[in-house]
Amino acid sequence: MPVATTPPPATPAAPPPHKWSRRHLLGLDGLTAGEVRALLRAAAAYVPVATSTQTDTQELAGRTVATLFFEDSTRTRTSFTLAARRLGAGVVDLSSGASSVNKGESLLDTARTVEAMGVSGIVVRAKQAGAAELIARGVSCAVVNAGDGKHEHPTQGLLDLLTLAEAHGRQDALDLSGLTLVIVGDVVSSRVARSAIAGARLLGARVVCVGPPALAPASLAALGCEVSGDLDAVLPIADAVMMLRVQFERHEGSESLRSPSVPSPREFRTLFGLTRERADRMKPGAVVMHPGPMNRGLEIDGEVADGPRSVIRTQVSRGVAVRMAALRLCIG
Ligand code: NCD
């Protein structure tokens, strides 16, 4: 005869771990809020080292990081290089001009060759969306995505989140609920926006993307944000406005600012440029962000970029701390 059994008490679902156990950082979409917080907490702890000219840690001493940049970059490559050095790692730079990719060797072959020389981590930037993931599948060392086409730029997304959290006193909880992040301009071309949207949503923020329909189409809503064509209507609710560079080089073959269906650069500035007059209408405490490089006078006025609301320099400085965290957690 079956014995009546009492079902075990329902155990509450375990909270997602606030720790990092992945080998690669390929994007923020698909991570848990706990994983994003683990990266941000590590980054926040590195801020004093990252911003001092004198300190270094030796946490990755004896390791080598390879930077493989197949697309132009100044700040991201420099920032990763500084981050690796501040962790005590050696850095080898294989930009496309100097590597055999120009001779027809595939991205993956180049990455495997570099790995065979004993590197512990590869930082990759490429024109093709999915390039970092492709490499990660083919090598056993850590891979950090430094921007793959229009897909993701996760360390930029993390530095944006850290800057935003600090600007609003949320750096301890790393919770952005109740805050509205407004992302303006060429969202459709932007891997920065994709990573920022994914990360900000994970931490509870509301995200509104604003631009002309060709650059901020309604379909972006699938990423979990709202979409608007009216910057002046959205500006008063913003706690942070992130201006994006108009990426003319990515418009080839698609609708572009130069195409008749979308505004000219002059109209773009009139409708979507962050002018001093617009910045003055933002909420007290609301901040202005830009990933750089900026088209001053197009999407943002110089006096706003350098003005009191701007946290653009903080973004650059947090970039080093975030990249230290990404390298340390993926390699270590
Ligand atoms: C961005 C990039 O390369 O995706 N810049 C950056 O990493 N700081 C944005 C851009 O090029 O406009």
Task: Label this structure with key terms.
332 residues, alpha/beta, Rossmann fold, four-stranded parallel β-sheet, binds N-carbamoyl-L-aspartate
Q: Summarize this, please?
A:
By secondary structure, this protein is of the alpha/beta class. The chain folds into 2 domains: 33-151 and 317-331, Aspartate/ornithine carbamoyltransferase (Rossmann fold); 154-313, Aspartate/ornithine carbamoyltransferase (Rossmann fold, 3-Layer(aba) Sandwich). Helix content is 35%, strand content 13%.
Topology:
Blueprint lengths: L32 H19 L12 E6 L5 H12 L3 E4 L13 H10 L4 E6 L4 H8 L3 E7 L5 H14 L12 E5 L6 H12 L3 E5 L15 E3 L2 H4 L5 E4 L21 H8 L3 H5 L6 E3 L12 H4 L6 H20 L1
Parallel strand pairs: 1-2, 1-3, 3-4, 5-6, 5-8, 6-7, 8-9
Helix pairs in contact: 1-5, 1-11, 2-11, 3-4, 5-6, 5-11
Bound molecules: N-carbamoyl-L-aspartate.
The site of N-carbamoyl-L-aspartate has 11 residues, from α2 and α6.
